[in-house]
UniProtKB/TrEMBL annotation:
It comes from the Bacteria. Pfam families: ADH_zinc_N_2. The lineage of its organism: Bacteria, Bacillati, Actinomycetota, Actinomycetes, Kitasatosporales. It comes from Streptomyces evansiae. InterPro entries: NAD(P)-bd_dom_sf, Zinc_ADH-like. This is Zinc-binding dehydrogenase. SUPFAM superfamilies: NAD(P)-binding Rossmann-fold domains (SSF51735).
Length: 114
C-alpha cells in the first residue's frame, strides 16, 4: 500500500490476526487507523516500536460469540424481518452489479447469485 500511495492507507481493516498485523502496521499511513476485528490468534506479537512510529490508532471490534449470533439469527427469523432486495444479478453480471452499487440509485441490497 505504501508503494502504491507513498503515504499508506488511512484506514486498515485487520482480520488476519497475529499473522498479518505486522503487514497492517506497515500499510497504515502516519496517523491512520487499524480496526482489529476479533481476537488475535496466537503467533508473533506486533512490533510496538514500529507501531508507535506510525502514530496510528488501533481499535478493536468485537464480533461476539457463536451463541450470540445463533440467538440473534433465531430472533430475526421469528420476527419475520427480511432485507430489502433492490436487484438480483446472476454471477456472470457481477461487473454490472458493482456498477449498479456504485451508482447509489438502489434501495436495499444488490445481490449477486450463483
Amino acid at each position: 500500500m505504501r508503494e502504491l500511495t507513498d503515504v499508506g492507507a488511512t484506514q486498515v481493516l485487520e482480520i488476519g490476526g497475529a499473522g498479518t498485523l505486522t503487514q497492517s502496521i506497515e500499510a497504515v499511513a502516519h496517523g491512520g487507523q487499524i480496526a482489529l476485528v476479533g481476537n488475535l490468534a496466537p503467533g508473533e506479537g506486533m512490533d510496538v516500536h514500529h507501531f508507535f512510529r506510525r502514530a496510528a490508532t488501533l481499535r478493536s471490534i468485537s464480533v461476539g460469540s457463536r451463541s450470540a449470533l445463533e440467538r440473534m439469527t433465531e430472533a430475526i427469523a421469528r420476527s419475520g424481518l427480511w432485507p430489502v432486495i433492490d436487484r438480483v444479478f446472476p454471477f456472470e453480471q457481477a461487473p454490472e452489479a458493482v456498477t449498479h452499487f456504485k451508482s447509489g440509485t438502489y434501495v436495499g441490497k444488490a445481490v449477486i447469485s450463483h
